[in-house]
Amino acid sequence: MNSYLERLFAGRWIAGPEISDALAAALKLNSLRIRAKINYLGEDLSDKVMVNDAVKTYLEVIDEARKRKVEIFIAVKPTQIGSLQGRKALLSNYLRITKAARSAGIMTWLDMESHREVDETLWLYGKEMKRGMVGICIQSYLKRSFEDMKRIVEDGGVVRLVKGAYRENESIAYASRKEISDNYTEMMRYLFKSSEKFMIATHDTDMIRKALALERKYRKKAMFGMLNGVRNKYALELAEKGEDVTIYLPFGKEWIQYAYRRLRESSNLKLILRSLMEKQDIY
Ligand SMILES: Cc1cc2nc3c(=O)[nH]c(=O)nc-3n(C[C@H](O)[C@H](O)[C@H](O)COP(=O)(O)OP(=O)(O)OC[C@H]3O[C@@H](n4cnc5c(N)ncnc54)[C@H](O)[C@@H]3O)c2cc1C
Question: Is residue 282 part of a domain?
């Protein structure tokens, strides 16, 4: 990462360009009792060579993490591993990754992209769900998500619940912050009631407080997930209190789309500046 902009925006959210950067950051997180969920940056890949490169990179990450005993999860986007080339390529690439990860004791998570990818992502997840060591992201802003989540949980799958990061049309998605949060709360209640393993992925203090209360009510532990560089100190606080915390840790050179989504979420200028100025380093 050379340019000033890259250092300013990407540097705080992204571990660095290389596998070694991601693993070094993951090791430091592990020393703080936090697991890293490593994502190789890249999406919407129609070029077969780039897709193969992404798959190969994940296999290398898995191999290196196993050798160096770094505790990680892997997070993969379907449009990065072949969904634009058709189901055959997508499934074969996904299975290569999940097989290698499973044998290294590493869980593979599917990220959820825009609404256009939801059916394909659910289909893909369904192919591996029963074998275990795989999870899927579900977004509370989509009106369909509650039903999708129920089906996954009933079939024994593992859900990572987020609010959603893409621009979606009001005909299919809740638009107001209140509606998205209300749906998140209801979905979270369902997970505590009906699922044994799930991740509450948010930086929202109110939501995390509610989740901690639900942990006490149901005598169940959730996994908590946050994105690197957003509220690292809060993640550390939770880990120090004995919560199971994972930090989503991207690495690679294709940082623009990822950084754009993070900037949009910092809903006003004050937040963006605060997020950029505040020291987030915990590792
Ligand atoms: C582990 C993890 C995995 C994710 N995976 C996916 C995925 O696969 N698909 C998907 O669509 N989305 C994903 N997301 C993103 C998610 O959908 C939201 O867009 C994002 O988490 C912001 O929503 P929030 O729940 O943190 O709450 P918000 O209400 O957006 O934020 C709550 C508070 O957190 C702080 N905050 C949040 N974001 C920022 C920021 N960028 N900079 C500074 N402060 C901030 C602010 O204080 C804000 O008031 C993921 C998020 C996490 C944590």
Answer: no
Q: Is residue 283 part of a domain?
A: no
pLDDT over 70 at 266, yes or no: no
Total tally of structural domains belonging to the chain:
1
Percent of the chain with pLDDT over 70: 90
Report CA-CA distances (Å) from 208 to 71, 93, 185, 223.
24, 35, 10, 11
Output the CA 165–ligand 1 centroid distance in Å: 7
Q: pLDDT by residue (tens digit) across 172-229? A: 999 999 999 999 999 999 999 999 999 999 999 999 999 999 999 999 999 999 999 8
Could you give the C-alpha distances from 183 to 52, 105, 161, 235, 243, in angstroms and in order?
A: 37, 33, 11, 23, 24
CA 74 to chain centre: 9
101-158 residue pLDDT tens: 999 999 999 999 999 999 999 999 999 999 999 999 999 999 999 999 999 999 999 9
Which atom of ligand 1 is nearest the CA belonging to 262?
41
* Spatial CB neighbours of 184, under 8 Å, sequence gap ≥ 6: 140, 161, 163, 202, 207
Centre of ligand 1 from the C-alpha of residue 89, in Å: 30
Ligand 1 neighbours, Cβ below 6 Å, are 111-112, 137, 139, 162-166, 201-204, 225-227, 230-231, 248, 262, 265-266, 271, 275
* Centroid of ligand 1 to alpha carbon of 281 (angstroms): 18
Give the residue numbers spanning the domain of 70.
4-277
**0.85 exceeded by pTM:** yes
Question: Residue 11 maps to which CATH number?
Answer: 3.20.20.220
Residue 226 alpha carbon, nearest atom of ligand 1 = 53
- Measured in angstroms, how far is the CA atom of residue 67 from the centroid of ligand 1? 32
- Could you tell me if residue 238 is inside a domain? yes
